[in-house]
From TrEMBL:
Keywords: Cell outer membrane, Membrane. This is OmpA family protein. Signal peptide: none annotated. Residues 213-335 form the OmpA-like domain. It comes from the Bacteria. Pfam families: OmpA. It comes from Epilithonimonas ginsengisoli. SUPFAM superfamilies: OmpA-like (SSF103088). CDD domains: OmpA_C-like. It is found in: Cell outer membrane.
Length: 335
């Protein structure tokens, strides 16, 4: 009898321990599901550092470096390629802007090929090709919604061909580090219907706009009735940079050469940020130009100002080059 009771007690104790263990195991599963999945950087310390990525000396060939996998095709047979762009890449679960030459495309199964689309095939094809030239996967996961919302107004390219659906798809990000600093960033994602891939080679912005001199401003005012200037202000402010003051000195030369000339100063911004704020900023910048001209001895009666914010762009706001074109001051000959 004593032996039977002892065995019964041990059985009940073992059952109790198993239930407790199962419950703790379930709790651990609930609390450890990662939103950020993996990084395959061999030297990762938990925080992305480009210097920890091995440099690749492989010949990458011609940009965008990678062909389309067999039996797949670009949607609408057209990729979006820009000489200079800014793309946000989720690194460590946080979007970071990278600037340079870009290529974006939506990918689908080839026309006329039965069951040609496969997400695992799409992902594995690029994964192996990228790693074969020294690329490293630095992020794989689903980006937190609050992080997407943080940058979506700045990422004005969202919605165009090749855009990644961060809200619903897991994204994979790779980097190929180059010795000269022209690192290549790649991100891709997809679902059961198709996928998207974005490739950017890091590159410094090359300025192609030069400051208009007094004679050109005068000619534009005479021939066209207006002159378009790209006067440099401090970022998101109405204070002038050094070369901005030089540009205003050229305007003053024109006004001093023709004492009967009156001008309207119109300010414009790109579409980054809040529309109401941009309108106010454009008015403040036009007013700054006016005040600087008054300091140069130009009579206030010859100057008027107005700001139009992000309205009436003269270039595509989806590229950094276009945004630069839109951040401008126009001088209108006042009749």
């Amino acid at each position: 009898m004593t032996t039977k009771l002892l065995l019964t007690g041990l059985a009940l104790l073992a059952l109790s321990c198993n239930k407790t263990g199962d419950k703790e195991k379930g709790n651990n599963q609930d609390t450890t599901k990662p939103e950020i999945v993996i990084s395959e950087n061999p030297n990762s310390t938990g925080k992305f550092d480009i210097n920890a990525i091995p440099v690749s000396d492989k010949d990458l060939g011609v940009f965008p470096f990678f062909s389309i996998p067999e039996n797949l095709q670009i949607i609408n047979k057209k990729a979006v390629e820009k000489k200079f762009d800014r793309i946000f890449f989720p690194i460590d679960g946080v979007f970071q802007a990278v600037e340079g030459r870009s290529w974006k495309a939506g990918i689908e199964g080839a026309t006329g090929v039965s069951d040609s689309w496969s997400l695992p095939y799409f992902e594995k094809s690029y994964d192996e090709a990228i790693k074969a030239v020294g690329g490293v996967k630095i992020y794989e996961g689903k980006v937190p919604t609050e992080e997407i919302n943080r940058i979506k107004e700045q990422a004005t390219y969202f919605g165009e061909d090749g855009s990644i659906d961060y809200w619903n798809n897991i994204v994979k990000v790779y980097v190929i580090r180059r010795a000269n600093g022209d690192d290549v960033y790649i991100q891709l994602a997809g679902n059961t219907a198709g996928g998207n891939i974005q490739i950017l080679q890091k590159e410094a912005f090359k300025q192609t706009i030069t400051m208009l001199k007094a004679d050109q401003i005068q000619k534009d005012l005479s021939d066209k009735g207006k002159a378009v200037l790209h006067i440099n202000f401090d970022t998101d402010k109405a204070t002038l940079k050094g070369d901005g003051k030089e540009a205003i000195a050229e305007i003053a030369k024109v006004l001093n050469a023709d004492k009967n000339l009156k001008i309207a100063i119109h300010g414009y911004t790109d579409n980054t940020g809040d529309e109401k704020h941009n309108l106010q900023l454009s008015k403040q910048r036009a007013a700054t130009v006016k005040q600087e001209l008054i300091k140069s001895g130009i009579e206030v009666s010859r100057l008027t100002t107005e700001g139009f914010g992000q309205n009436s762009p003269i270039a595509d706001n989806n590229s950094e080059e276009g945004k630069f074109q839109n951040r401008r001051v126009e001088l209108i000959k006042d009749k």
